[in-house]
Automatic annotation (TrEMBL):
One of its GO terms (molecular function) is GTPase activator activity. This is Ral GTPase-activating protein subunit beta. InterPro entries: RALGAPB (IPR039930), RGPA/RALGAPB_N (IPR046859). It holds the Pfam family RALGAPB_N. Residues 134-249 form the Ral GTPase-activating protein subunit alpha/beta N-terminal domain. Residues 354-396 are annotated as: Disordered. The gene is Ralgapb_0. It comes from the Eukaryota. It comes from Liparis tanakae (Tanaka's snailfish).
Amino acid sequence: MYSEWRSLQLVVQSDQGHLSVLHTYPTSVGTEVANAVVKPLGSAVSPVATENILKTDKEVKWTMEVLCYGLTLPLEGDTVKLCVDVYTDWMMALVSPRDSMPQPVVKEPNMYVQTILKHLYNVFVPRPEQHSLNHIRLCQQVLTAVQKLARESVSMVRETWEVLLLFLLRINDTLLAAPTVGVGVAEKLAEKLMAVLFEVWLLACARCFPTPPYWKTSREMLANWRHHPPVVEQWSRVACALTSRLLRFTHGPSFPPFKVPDEDASLIPLEMDHDCVAQTWYRFLHMLSNPVDLSNPTIVSTTPKFQEQFLNSSGLPHEVVLHPCLKQLPQIFFRAMRGISCLVDAFLGISRPRADSAPPTPVNRMSMSPPPSITNTTPPHSRKQRHTVVNKTTSKSSIVSSSKCSKVNSMLVQV
């Protein structure tokens, strides 16, 4: 569906915005400079701070080169933590600027936040496992700040939204694309990573709808992470929430509501209009690619990271499909099919019960009034309605049933 649009995947993976000028110097030089510069900044982000030591644009940009390098240092000391504290504080200039922030950042928050996001990619670069707890805490701190930024900022321009989306795609790809064994940082962060990505993506749809290249890129990159269960779980969660909103205005108030948890329903911004919901729903369904592929380890293991690890291990060609992480695919496939089953039930007017409740009860359509006439919001491909010839002797109930089934079939074809 995006064949005529270019992918941004290579742009994302080759971006050098996370590198500092200090990376051109010997390691000892960069480390010494970062340790010396960052400590005075740490006190500037405390709640009692009233003024920042950085006054000019030149001072801020020079300091950011040091902070960028500081984020790449080992986690033994407190330098990396201080760098994260400073950057997550400055990001809030787009939410609630304070006097303790550098004035250049307050005056041009979008420009600086775009650079900060690129620098913060360094936090998510894999580290030695012995520091996994500290690494996870720092990643969670950044993700929480990004959530707050997307939720509360009212002054983010399109370029900042786009940098934010690409940042999230890149950190997800860095941590989730590679095949892993055991429970490491990627497994512990997968749910949070996917939840933040999808929530921010939905907020972007409401405030600054992503262009087709971004949808194409997200679909391509998400295919690299499908061996992690939270990817399908979070996708299904959002798809159900979007479907619940969609049915309200496409099928009318008399149609049985598709109930989802309040926490999931709140993911869909209230300011989303009907057309935006329909467009987002249609594109989001395709973001997972073909869910049937999840039943085939050969397809899932053809991603670049799988092949790269296979080549590094000097194994036989058929051994890549035997990687331990692929043993989860049957359960992942089941969850994907269950999620799609819930969507089908929703269009049929059947609410999926909880595990401890009775089986679903078919809806009595004889008591339902026809849906109201609405403007067609089916995105983005046009389609022709199938004309149904009805015998005059046909009962009224058959007419209603035929009309509803035709509408359901038409919408499911789009899925």
